[in-house]
Amino acid sequence: MLRRVERSSNFRVFSQTQEFFFKSLNLCMCFASPSFACNQNAFFSSASSSGNGRSDGSPEQNPYFGALFSKMTDLGCQNHYLSGKGEPNPRTDISHDSNESGEAIEGPFHSSGRRLASEFSEMCDLDDRSETDEESDGVDDSDDSEFGVLNLFKRNSDQRVSNERFQEEKDESRHPLVKETCRLIGLRHAWNPKLEAELRSLLRSLKPIQVSAVLCSQPDARLAVSYFHWADRQWRYRHSPDVYCTMLEILSKTKLSQASRRVLRLMIRRGITRKPEDFANVMVSYSRAGKLRSAMRVLNLMQKDGCSPDLVICNTAIHVLVMANRLEKALRFLHRMQSVGINPDVVTFNCLIKGFCDVHRVEDALEMIREMPFKGCPPDKISYYTVITFLCKEKRVEEVRELLEKMKNDSNLIPDQVTHNLLIHVLSKHGHSDEALGFLQESEEKGFRVDKVGYSAIIHSFCRDGRMEEAKDIVKEMITKGRLPDVVTYTAVVNGFCRIGKIDQARKLMDYMYKKGCKPNAVTYTAFLNGLCRIGSSIEAKDMLNKSEEEWWTPTAITYSVVMHGLRREGKLAEACNLVFQMIKNGFFPTPIEINQLIHALCRDGKPIEAKKFMEDCQSKGCTITVVIFTTLIHGFCRSGDLVSAISLLDDMFLSNRHPDVVTYTVVIDALGKNERFEEASELMKNMLNRGLVPTPITYRTVIHRYCAKGSVDELLKLLDKMLARQGFRTAYNQIIEKLCGFGRLDEAYKVIGKVLRTASKMDADTCHILMDCFLKKGLPLLSYKLACRMFRRNLIPNVKLCQKVSNKLLLDGKSAEAGRLMVKFIERGQSLV
């Protein structure tokens, strides 16, 4: 009873304190937001009461109180009573994690309570336009607006701080708290509030360096992002600046550019000092995702932020420009950074050397190597290796040898074993096996020991070219020199035998591998099964696949795909479908392309019903079913004449949240037109246009062919008006006339010829010639004459030889006046009749 009285008393005291807090905040907000003051009564009444009659002031227990606390901290207010600390915990960005397509990532770290949307999205300086127009097609070569950030270098030169970290950081990945946190994160599939409470408790015990270790220990960067934002939303916790830097560094190794951008936005909102390497990490993430234009826009953000550039960010910018094939702009950037006092290093020049090699300007690359010592930056081996790699691709071996001499004489860089291994691997990779073998022999003569990896590369190159005898000789040479071949070497030879159809020799080699204690792995068996499927023995390949457990090897997804494609090519579609389900049972999922190929094969054999059942079974087992797969199946039903099922499947796409594309609509419209159901085809086309889909040239040709075949020209013209209003198609009316001529409907074609003569181009003249020739073949020279006259009126000169045929035909029909006038028109326009 005393406890209950004490609890009630505490609640009244807290309620009075809370009421005082709300009124004080209301007084502050009256000057900032009139709307807030107007609604304070309703807000206070809902915030001061809870469903169970209790309130502990925690944002996790009282969502309204937490929301108001977030509002308060966003405005810069501080309340020691609430946070228990001298500074608040701003909870500003609490939106869901996003993947690269903008969809929410359903991670395990989203709190179950109510979350408010961030009110600081308008305050971020980052250009939000990069969300909408992040093209991967490169950077504008004429716009140097990004170079403005270099002007900050002199202005803030006295404020620059070295980015080097002199203190040696301790590895915290094996700390018990870090390991336990990683274990709980790994249990995300069995997540519940109890585990989240444990993870929250661990978070408050972790040091910033340990939080960074947790992020670095995640096998997937998306998990690290989810944990980062989950921790950022927790009560009484704030990420240190080092954690933000670690998160950006992790994301710079991935293509998650939007996640990297969001972390940088958080740093800007929270007032955390940004360093040039933070912006560089965001640029690298954008460049890995192919969003090169957005990567360069980071420099504009850096300029707005007032962050002084350094050599790291400049090298990153030059690298991005080189990747975007904007070498000239990269050179201008180099000149600009030198003019403001940022001296390039060897990394800068190496990026430009690679840019020269990418555009086949190897002479300029060599010239830059020669000039580097005079600029206080002698070239290193990477500088030479970049040019050597390009020369090896081009099979310019003599120039490679000359460059190796220059590397030794001019730069005092002695070619070592790494150099020779590079030459061997690059030449082998690009199919220059003889040259690679020559360098291997030369390197061994100089005392360098080429390992079995180098030998395996050359063997693989010979086997890929079908030169198995040379490959076998190299294997024997390896054994005599004490470089025992490993499973990679033998697998290359097995694959070579299978490529030329010598399955028996490949089988003998695999038996030999067992005798020598070199057990074939999944790659070896995959190569062998592929060889069996190539010669039409896919059933044998399937049997070997089923016996994989007995042979103590584990097939991969590629192994299943190889056998599945073999069965499909041989027409054993039932076995191929069963293998897909076996593949799914073993934890491997076929790609949408593989599913589509099987469905196409079933439909081609006239089995669309079986194909539909196969698709539904795959979808129920978790396979990805795309719009292309639906379109293939719809086309299969259309080919079999089952339009009811095709249209029903089109409706099912919307129920499955797969929206048909223009190809899907084109397939159904073609089938409706083939069955003379033009009214339904027109309605379907209107639906397609209303959904914002743009007709393609194939759509136009399909519609024109079907309508012209049945002579429904009036309906076609009405439909074309709507299609052309959405997407222009220059030759639409030309194709109508040509199709009508092909179907012998010359009267309808003559009615449409006026739409062609509006533009009077050479293509239109060719169309008119086709119609004139058809009139002549039908014995209607007078209509040919009238068409020629219409061409003259449009200043379009018809073909002389064709008009002479028309004139001769008119003379035979007794129409000499028209024949003479036709020839006179040529003379009036200065055309020769010879």
Automatic annotation (TrEMBL):
PROSITE patterns: PPR (PS51375). GO terms for molecular function: mRNA binding. Signal peptide: none annotated. Residues 79-111, 125-146 are annotated as: Disordered. Residues 88-99 have a biased composition (Basic and acidic residues). GO terms for biological process: mitochondrion organization; RNA processing. Keywords: Repeat. The keyword Cell division does not apply. It comes from the Eukaryota. PPR repeats lie at residues 275-309, 310-344, 345-379, 380-410, 416-450, 451-485, 486-520, 521-555, 556-590, 591-625, 626-660, 661-695, 696-726. PANTHER family: MITOCHONDRIAL GROUP I INTRON SPLICING FACTOR CCM1-RELATED, PENTATRICOPEPTIDE REPEAT-CONTAINING PROTEIN PET309, MITOCHONDRIAL. This is Pentatricopeptide repeat-containing protein.
